[in-house]
């Protein structure tokens, strides 16, 4: 929850132009104001993907649990190796799950498969393709192909028993889920899911299934928000469309506060919108209305709503569909993860050549929609999706990345390097 007052928060933004707050300053102010929830729950391992680990996970066992072979080949005693070719007697065979349990003496070796337990006294494996001659009974190993200790995985080399396998706050990935399984752990304690209530405001909005009268638009924001919240593993509470009138808005905010940790609204925060929104939000809680130097997504309300002893974080996002997505991704999403107790999420921005010239005014951050592709030489480059208006949702749908043009940056020439933020990560 918010642990600073709005005046303290506003103080964090002091020194910046109130008409054009830099994106990074707003992100820092939001981050500085959030205190994570503390409630946790236990979930079965398969349900833990994307959830936030509630505490450090300690490995109860060595991984791997025993020394084993990294190769298909022959397990031998390193002390038998010399600077001459050697011939060893094959005394047995070890498969994964079927160890060779007798002792191996000097001059002997064991045929071994990847993952099989290293036989007692053996400390090295010669891969089968490096042997110069091999039969059921004897194998000849040329000089200097391996050193003692090669091709053996040591017990605990991945994770020693008692060591920290995963950090508190880790957002669990497929690799983490597999890692936890490799420790034999069936359930994990994660932070509880956040309840996020959201609604759209606007008299012009119609919901799917309603006829679209002249001058009306279908409400798409609730659908993008619902989807983005699912991706963030929140529990979405869809409160529908709320009319542009003070009583409806107040009732919606009160209900949202009673049921949710976070409230996200869209529309109604622009300069031209009725002042009652601001007055009411101010009355129900502690909310700032910010003009952010970004495109799309300039106006945004942020703060908390207090109602009947409960408090909920509020994001009043702009109405335009692309602005909703940009403000969600660059402000709300990180705040949601922080509230869930997740470690800070690093956004991996990388540099590529712009296939085209881009017009850009210094003094604001722009998030233009781009398509990453490769030219005939295999070099990666980015092209804009076309019209970049903040109402053009197809520009987000066509894109596979954001081209991030920073605050100071001016016009970009074709071929110049720009920063891009891909929409999809591998993991
Ligand atoms: P507002 O910020 O309320 O002035 O809205 C700005 C623009 O975004 C207007 O053209 C609205 O019609 C449009 N808009 C607002 N909310 C939605 C929504 N939920 N779905 C689609 N468009 C919207
Ligand atoms: Mg509106």
Keywords, separated by commas or semicolons:
Molybdopterin biosynthesis moeA protein, domain 3; binds adenosine monophosphate; binds magnesium ion; 20% helix; 26 strands; 427 residues; Molybdenum Cofactor Biosythetic Enzyme, Chain A; Molybdopterin biosynthesis moea protein, domain 2; 4 domains; six-stranded mixed β-sheet; alpha/beta
Question: Explain this structure to me?
Answer:
The two termini are 29 Å apart. It is elongated and about 90 Å long. The strands form seven sheets. It has a six-stranded mixed beta sheet, with no helix packed on it. Strands 16-13-17-21-20-18 form a six-stranded mixed beta sheet, sandwiched between helices. Strands 22-24-23-25-26 form a five-stranded mixed β-barrel. With 427 residues, the chain is an alpha/beta fold. It has four domains: 6-37 and 193-339, MoaB/Mog-like domain (Molybdenum Cofactor Biosythetic Enzyme, Chain A, 3-Layer(aba) Sandwich), CATH 3.40.980.10; 41-63 and 165-191, Molybdopterin biosynthesis moea protein, domain 2 (Alpha-Beta Complex), CATH 3.90.105; 68-153, Molybdopterin biosynthesis moea protein, domain 3 (Molybdopterin biosynthesis moeA protein, domain 3), CATH 2.170.190; 350-422, MoeA, C-terminal, domain IV (Beta-clip). It has helices spanning 6-12, 23-33, 174-182, 221-231, 246-259, 276-284, 321-339, 394-398; strands at 40-44, 57-58, 68-69, 73-76, 86-94, 108-112, 124-127, 133-134, 138-141, 152-153, 164-166, 187-191, 195-201, 205-206, 217-218, 235-242, 262-266, 285-291, 294-295, 299-307, 310-317, 350-354, 365-374, 380-384, 401-405, 417-422. A hairpin with a 5-residue loop joins strand 23 and strand 24. Helix 2 (23-33) packs parallel to helix 7 and helix 5 (246-259) packs parallel to helix 6 (276-284). Adenosine monophosphate binds at residues 200, 202, 204-205, 217, 219-221, 266-268, 270, 273, 318-321, 391.
